């Protein structure tokens, strides 16, 4: 998992905005990349709604916000429509990017072990450097904390 001071691993993924998004092509704008386990689950829905509620503030600060899960673009579109989300969502269906970023991990629920995405957020500056990393994110208040970090750049 990248830590503060590391160069953010580059990626190109399909996006709900149409076409693909390449992380390095977004420079010099700061970028918030948040990884989440699955569309339409309680924590993931709340996290996406929280980032959506602050989307104008992120735009005013000059930052792009990208949410990544392994759900398909079609599923992302249904999720966005159902919850009126403004969040730009990217599909990492084969989990290659999640693995590159170290967020595809062994998880345990009800005694069952499986591989899944660990909720994590990264703030990348104009040079492509990770300036803040939030592993094992707790959703409550997280989007606000990330916005404050963006404003501090």
TrEMBL record:
GO molecular function: thioredoxin peroxidase activity
Keywords: Antioxidant, Disulfide bond, Oxidoreductase, Peroxidase, Redox-active center
Matches recorded under InterPro entries: AhpC/TSA, Peroxiredoxin_AhpC-typ, Peroxiredoxin_BCP/PrxQ, Thioredoxin-like_sf, Thioredoxin_domain
Enzyme class: oxidoreductase
Any matching Pfam family: AhpC-TSA
Any one GO biological process: cellular response to oxidative stress
Catalytic reaction(s) noted: a hydroperoxide + [thioredoxin]-dithiol = an alcohol + [thioredoxin]-disulfide + H2O
EC number: 1.11.1.24
CDD domains assigned: PRX_BCP
Residue ranges of every copy of the Thioredoxin domain listed in the record: 2-153
A single Gene Ontology CC term: cytoplasm
Active-site residues (renumbered): 44
Family the UniProt entry places it in: Belongs to the peroxiredoxin family. BCP/PrxQ subfamily.
Summary of the function given for this chain in its UniProt record: Thiol-specific peroxidase that catalyzes the reduction of hydrogen peroxide and organic hydroperoxides to water and alcohols, respectively. Plays a role in cell protection against oxidative stress by detoxifying peroxides and as sensor of hydrogen peroxide-mediated signaling events.
Subunit details: Monomer.
Protein name, per record: thioredoxin-dependent peroxiredoxin
Species whose genome carries this gene: Pseudooceanicola spongiae
């Amino acid at each position: 998992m990248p830590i503060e001071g590391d160069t953010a691993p580059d990626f190109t993924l399909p996006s709900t905005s149409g076409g693909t998004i390449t992380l390095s092509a977004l420079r010099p704008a700061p970028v918030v990349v948040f990884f989440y386990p699955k569309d339409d689950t309680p924590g993931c829905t709340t996290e996406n709604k929280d980032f959506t509620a602050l989307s104008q503030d992120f735009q005013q600060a000059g930052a792009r916000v990208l949410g990544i899960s392994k759900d398909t673009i079609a599923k992302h579109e249904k999720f966005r429509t159902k919850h009126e989300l403004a969040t730009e969502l990217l599909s990492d269906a084969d989990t290659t990017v999640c693995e590159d970023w170290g967020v595809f991990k062994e998880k345990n629920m009800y005694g069952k072990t499986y591989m899944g995405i660990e909720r994590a957020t990264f703030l990348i500056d104009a040079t492509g450097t990770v300036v803040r990393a939030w592993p094992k994110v707790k959703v409550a208040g997280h989007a606000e904390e990330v916005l404050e970090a963006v404003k501090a750049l």
